[in-house]
Amino acid sequence: MNSSTSTPIIEARNLTVRFGERTIFENLNFSVERGDILVILGGSGCGKSTLLRTLTGLNEPTEGQVFIGGEDFTAADGEARVALLRKFGILFQSGGLFASMTLAENVALPLQTYSQLSTDEIDTMITLKLGSVGLDGFQEFLPSEISGGMKKRAGLARAMALDPEILFFDEPSAGLDPITSASLDNLILNLNAALGTTMIVVTHELDSINAIAQKALMLDREAKGKIAFGTIDEVRNSTAHPRIQHFFQRIAEE
Asked: How, if at all, do strands 22-32 and 10-19 pair?
């Protein structure tokens, strides 16, 4: 992780999202340093996935701005926006693979679309990316022919195809058994350590949170925004709001 004096790789300023009369969150401010693993957590309906979609440009904020490496992503358009989008890789909850394509074809797609690499160079990258997630040798398999955990890994390989500076994960452990989930957590940690990639992970799984989080941002539906932000230990031990401890201790709300 870089010094706190460096420009954050992600910064949210007064970020607000409303759908009609419903406010999901408002005046949300936080920043993410390069190389961090930030986990976005909170109860159902607090806006975790909406925030991820807003940070990646899939949702436009009602108010506020998102800065990527100091550049105003919210205001960017045309080639400037495309250049910023290329800094992202996204692993969707389902894996997001195209069912009719082999794993190799899925990983090749962003390379064919956004790079000038030759066919041979793309083939090399496919082998490298699938190998980095433990799937070398599965190039010709269809998504229907592999397990749920392997689909997540293949989706991660595709998300990494363009060597993004930031990887976003939307509920990566959803639908996985505990052993497969722990294996994916280890993969996330190993890739972060090896590549220094900034990672933003939306999850409510305590085991994953405890395993991978360096920083944590906790959202709350009633507060319509954050109720805790800091290192995972700072957030876990915070007494600023009763729902923080309810979440970590799995205490039901009355």
From this structure: antiparallel
Q: Are 155 and 96 in contact (CB under 8 A)?
A: yes
Alpha helices in 13-167 (DSSP H): 48-55, 78-85, 103-114, 119-132, 148-159
- pTM of whole model > 0.70? yes
Q: Which residues contact 50 (CB under 8 A, 6 or more apart)?
A: 17, 24, 25, 59
Instruction: Name the β-bridge partners of 63.
Output: 16
Q: DSSP label at 238?
A: -
Name 12's bridge partners.
30, 66
Classify 10-239 by CATH class. Answer: alpha beta
Q: Where are the domains of the chain?
A: 10-239
**Chain segment 137-187, per-residue pLDDT in tens:** 999 999 999 999 999 999 999 999 999 999 999 999 888 899 999 999 999
Partners of residue 90 on adjacent β-strands: 168
Stated as kind and residue range, the H or E segment containing 10 is strand 10-19
The total of other beta-carbon atoms located within 10 Å of residue 45's CB is 12
